[in-house]
Structures are given as C-alpha cells and as structure tokens.
Fold this sequence. Notes:
By secondary structure, this protein is an alpha+beta fold. It is built from 30 helices and 33 strands. Helices cover about 45% and strands about 25% of the residues. The strands form six sheets. The chain has an eight-stranded mixed β-barrel with strand order 24-25-27-28-29-30-31-32, surrounded by four helices. Strands 10, 11, 12, 13, 14, 15 and 16 form a seven-stranded antiparallel beta sheet that branches.
Amino acid sequence: xxxxxxxxxxxxxxxxxxxxxxxxxxxxxxxxDSALSISFFERxxxxxxxxxxxxxxxxxxxxxxxxxxxxxxxxFAEAFNDDxxxxxxxxxxxxxTLAGEDIGQLKYGLSINSLYQSKSELLEQSILIAIAEILLxxxxxxxxxxxxxxxISVLIDSAQKISAGDYDVxxxxxxxxxxxxxxxxxxxxxxxxQERIKxxxxxxxxxxxxxAEFESIFNSIADGVIFVDVDRICVSVxxxxxxxxxxxxxxxxxxxxxxxxxxxxxxxxQGSLRFASDxxxxxxxxxxxxxxxxxxxxxxxxxxxxxxxxxxxxxxxxGILRDISERKKYEFELMSAKEKAQVTLxxxxxxxxxxxxxxxxxxxxxVAEQLTGWSTDEALNKSLPEVFFIINSKTDKPIExxxxxxxxxxxxxxxxxxxxxxxxxxxxxxxxDSAAPIKDKSGNILGVILVxxxxxxxxxxxDQLNWQATHDSLTGLINRLEFENRLSKLLEKNQxxxxxxxxxxxxxxxxxxxxxxxxxxxxxxxxxxLATRFLNHIRDNDTLARLGGDEFGxxxxxxxxxxxxxxxxxxxxxxxxxxxxxxxxxxxTGTSIGLVHFSxxxxxxxxxxxxxADVACYAAKDTGRNRIHIYKPDDxxxxxxxxxxERVSTIQAALENNRLVLYCQPIVNCSDSHDHPHHYEILIxxxxxxxxxxxxxxxxPAAERYNLMPDIDRWIIKNxxxxxxxxxxxxxxxxxxxxSGTSLSDDTFLSxxxxxxxxxxxxxxxxxxEITETAAISNLAHVTSFISVLRKLGCKFSLDDFGSGLSSFxxxxxxxxxxxxxxxxxxxxxxxxxxDRSMVxxxxxxxxxxxxxxxxxxxxxxxxxxILKDLNIDYAQGYYFSKPFEFEKLKSITHQLxxxxx
Length: 902
C-alpha cells in the first residue's frame, strides 16, 4: 500500500506539475502578448528590449529566455537568463496578436524548478515517512491499515481537485498517520503554489504599469532619446529624434549614427570617451553640429549614459540629444549685445555711472571718469555722493543724491538746469543729467544708471541757435518768423491805450542784375550794406527784418501815420542816392514799398496784414517802381491784386483736379495756304467748378506773379506727350509749346522735359518750344544751355514775341533758334501803319539772313495775309485761319485740309 501510495503521489505530483505548468503558461502567455505586442508592432526596439530584459532578469524571474519573431520567422529580439538553472523548464510557442491579428510569434522558456524542488522535498519527506511507516507498519500493521483505509478516498478526491487547479481545496484529514502527514504536505504544496501564482500576477501588473509609464515618458519627452548597444548600433529612438532630424523612425535602427554628424571625427572621438564599455563614467555633455535629412544644420548637446544589468554588466548606452541652436543664438546675441553695450558706453559722449541697489558705484565710463576725476577701480563700491558730488550753481548748496531718490520713488529722476558737478580735483562742470532704475523682468530694482553730460558749451550753443532761429545769418537782422511774432504782439487786444502802428514791405528793384552780373557774393554784400542804411532811418524801438531774398520788412510800433510815411520817404530817398560799387562796376537800385497802417483795435491778422503789405508792394512795382503805395481797402489796384491772389487757389485746385484743358491753333505755310497745316501752337484754358472755360488771360497773370507757371508748364508738357503717344500726328507735323521764364530758370525743368520725352518714347522732333524774348534775355546763359541740350535731341525752338524788346537783334545772334515769331502788335495794324510794316519786314529779312523761318501772329483778315505773303513771311497764325480749339479734336482733323476763308 505504501508503494502504491508513493507511486500514486508521485503520479499526482507529476500530473500536478504538468497541469500547473500548463496553467502558468496559459496565464503568462496573454500577459506577455499584451506587454510586448504594441512595442513589437511599432518596432520600438529599445522599449521591447527593455521589457524583455526586465522580464527575464528581474529578481525572482522564472523566465529562462524570451524570443520574439516576425511573421516570417525572423528573430527580432531575444533575452536570456543565464543565472537560472533550466534543467526543468517548459518551452512555449505562442502567437503575438494585436487587435485580433497575428503580428509575430513568441517563444519563451519558463523554469519549473520550484515545482520540481517542491516535488523533491515532498518525496524526501515521503521517503522518510515511508521508512517510518514501514517500521510502524511492522509494529502497528493492523492499526495503520485501519487508518489508511479510512482516509484514502478523501486524499484521492482532494488530490484530484488540486490536480484540476483548485488550490483552495484543503484535505480534511486531521490524523497523525501517514495519510494525515500526506494531506498536510499537499495542503502546504497548494498554499505554496497559490503564493507563487499571486507573486507572478503582481509582478506582471507592476511590469505593465512601469512599461506604460516608461513609454509615456519616452514618447513625450521633447529631447531626442537614442538607445544603442555596446557596439554603438542603434536599437531605438524616440519621436523627439524623428522630429529633430526628419528621418522615419525605422531609418535609425541597426545602424551606426555617424551620418547624423557634420564632422564624423567628433562622433568617433566622443564615442571612444563615452560609448566604450571600458570608458570611465562621465556625467557631462558635449556639443556637436548635426545634419538633418534636408541638409540643414543645427548645434546639439548630447548627454550619454550606460545601461547596465543588475550585475553591472554594460548592455548598451542611452543618449539624450537637445537642439541648442536657439540657445547658442541667444548666447551669441547676448554676448554681442553686451559687447555693443560696452563699446557704446565706452564711446558715447555722455557720462554714465551705474550703482547697485544700495547706491554704491559699480561702473564709470571714460567720460564719467574724466568729469568726476575717479576711475572705475577707485570708485568701485563707494557711495555715489563721494564720487558724484553735485551742488546748485546759484546757491552752492549740495543737491540731494539722485540715486537715493530713484531707489525711494522707483522712477526716473531729472536734475534741475542749475546743477554743477565738482570733480575730484575741484573743477566745476555745468551738467544736465537723469537717473533711472535698472530692473529685472519681475520689476525688482537691481541698481541705478546715472547719465549726465557737460552742457557748458551746449548752453552757449543753444543761445547761438536761438539767435539763428530768429535772425538772418547774412544781414544780422531778425527773420520773417521773428518779425511775424513781433507783429502778433502788436495785434494783442490787451493794450492799455489805442496805439497806431505801420507795416512797411520793401522789395528791391533790379537786384537780380547785380546777382547775374557779379555773382551772389556781390549781391550778399549789397544786402548787408542796405540793411545798415535802413537801420539809420528807423527808431530804436522799430523792427527791421529780412523777410527773404531781396525783401525787407519794417515794423513801426506806436508810430503815427504821418511819421511812418515820412520814414518810408526817407528810405526811398536814401535808395535813390545809393550807389553800389563792386570792383569796376557801379549799380543803382531802388525799392518798391508797400505801406499798411493798423492799430491794436483792428481786426487784422498777421496773414491779412502781410498780404496787404505784399499786394501794396507789388502795386508800387507795377506803377513804376521805386515808389510807395499806401494800402487802402477800396484801392482798385489792390482789389485787382487780391483777385489775383484768390485766383491762385483756383489755379492750384485746377492742377490738383486736372481741370486744365489743352487747346491748339494751326500755324499755316504762307507759300501754300491750302496745304495741310503741319505746325500747331499749344494753348491752355481752365475749366472752373461751374464747367465754364476760362481764357488764359484770366489766370496766367496770377500764375506768373505767384510763381505757378512752372507747375502749369509741366502739366502741359506731360499731357501733350501723353496724348501724342496714344494718338500720333500726321507725318511731318509739329506742336509748339510756350515756356515761361520761371520754368527756364528752374534747374530741374530741363531734366523733367528729357524724362518726359524718353518715358513715352515720343520723337523729340515733334516739339518746338517757344521762348519769349524777355525770358531769354533775362537769363541768357541758362536759356542758351537749355536750347543746346534739347536741340541735340531733335527739338526745335522759336523766339516768341520778337521785336518787343529793346535789344532784340543784339541777343538774336546768341540764341540758336529755328523760328522767329514776330510780335503780333506789329502785325495786326500793319495794313494801316507803315512803321509796323517796316518792322515786320526788317525782322523777316534778318531772320532769313540767319536762315531762320518767320511766323507772323495775330493774322485776322485776308488783306493782312496778302501783305505777309508779299513780304515773304514763311508762316502765319490767327483767327483768319482758325480759332483755337481743343487739342483732343486734333486727332480727328489732322488729315483734313485747312479751309481758308474766301
């Protein structure tokens, strides 16, 4: 019976071990599948290797080995536990699944030595018990048989339940015989197996939790993480590396990573220091330049650490890589800013002192060292008043330390204008300064910066600038701005008594002759002499100003009208006696004076008074010059001038709103009056706000007087060229454009004309520019140059209104023109006036001698035209042929004959 019992127990134990091994593998396999499938699916070799290593080499682990194969049977990862005796182990092969799909195969060995150990211990105990029972059997055979028979069925039933995996079964045998001992041993074995299974379950849960935590950290860390083995072959990388370099994750696996380095020698050198198994442990990082997939470079900082097992064996290395390009950039910018700040402080003209939060000196720039007499080394950590001693220049009393006020009030502090700095050697400097807190990002005061400079020279210069701002630098007289300021004070209503004042506006006559003949140096000398002479005729409390150019203003404050007019006459007399000598030349000049009386009770403004004086001055010029014109509100002459000034705004508005209109009038060949007209004079009209067309004479005089002709001439040229570029004239045609004297005097006008001709690619041969004889004579050198440049481009020129000047024939030989346009004053009455006819004949003869074509204007009837043909005049223009019409219509009649009147 004992042999049967032992044999049956051994069978039961073996069966139990087999069943238990099966149960363990059935419970372990799903856990391993769950733990490894995701990492294997993502080919996260580092995580998979880590998990396998922890499962196999963890304390108390019963895994002898774990191998992971892909679907083709290729080994992907494996781990062995060489420390476990695998004499008794079970080998298990199971599929790896994810979401119900097979993704690979899992093979592992599970040691069951503990079960066999328990079996051995149980057998040893059983043998001992058997021996004892054999002895007892011999002695107590009868009693033993009874007890054995009684408990056999219970023992067998309980053993079968345990064999079925029901470890909660307890064999209810309380006897002290062999059956009772066997039952107790079975109960102990059941408890041991239950405890081991619980430990495995707890280890699996813990392993799963740690794995999840590690994966979360590994995948979410912003820096790049790289796992390499002992041969520096990449095992896995985290998403940070993928993002950092741009290669796909699988690209790194099973490769050396030297291709990520710009300089591979750095990879090999640092590898020998940090990635060798026998290298010393290092906790410092190193910097290198790395290259991304797209070829771009960045600076990275790499920290490497060894990965060891429980026995200290190096299994591989983990590297953490951080992109420090921005940091390096900021470090460079910070260093550059610091250097620039240092250079700035060293080179700026202002003195700079900085202190700490306690008001102790930390730094002085060279200017501060010079002014205070202290060097930075000597002044370091000294209190500011000891280095920067300031007093009030008026009272000589010390002034409160500005740094103390800044620290107390936490705001910028400026010192008064009376601050004087006493240097270390006793020198005094008038200074201006300000002190400001130095704060960190949180607003905490780190110290104070004090900026100051010596203003002794600046104050002298300020006085000079103030004088220059209110005075004319040439004559030393006050300028227009200061003149108007003083006029404003006289207009104030808070005067105690009614006071009468007078404003004189003086414009020199023929001053331009001096400038043009002898140069501006002579003109400047003449202005200084005249300023002195004018001062001799006014009172001490009167004001004389140079308003600009050759214009002067005199303000006679609190001066009766008759006394003011006497002063003006004395000045006029002085000018009539004045002779200006320059080298071998003598010049006489006069002045036109506009005089305006006003009082402190009048409603006049600065603008109305200055305008009235200006208008009165122009009236004096127009009525003969070198005379006085007294302003009166009902003066017809002044009313006309006011009208012209109002017309100025109309002209300006027309220019801005494009309300000028181009007209033209044909110029006919006298030899064949029925031929096509090939020559047209461009004329200008103005369309007012009521859509009425205004003649040129209604606005041109105002434009000439107030210097608007250059703008009008530019408008005409620009628009004529624009129309000709889109609607060319017939072959051989020409247009004549009048140019004013002010335009010809403008230094920029010539370049404007050239730019316009070139911008639209219009043939310059289409244009003939008409210049009045008066404009040509007044600026002969400039006009000659103007003509020369444009003639080289192909333009032609006509001398307009020829014969109206006193020296026409003298100047004609100096002007390279193509046409002479005879003044219409001679043409319109020539059929009744023999002198006019002789003048026309003379001009025509001289023109032909000089190979010039002649044009007669103001031809209003057939009789005049016949006389012109008899005189061999080349061209004629006037109402007899055509009245002016809009230039726009020219494109529709260009190919029609000019119809002559009967």
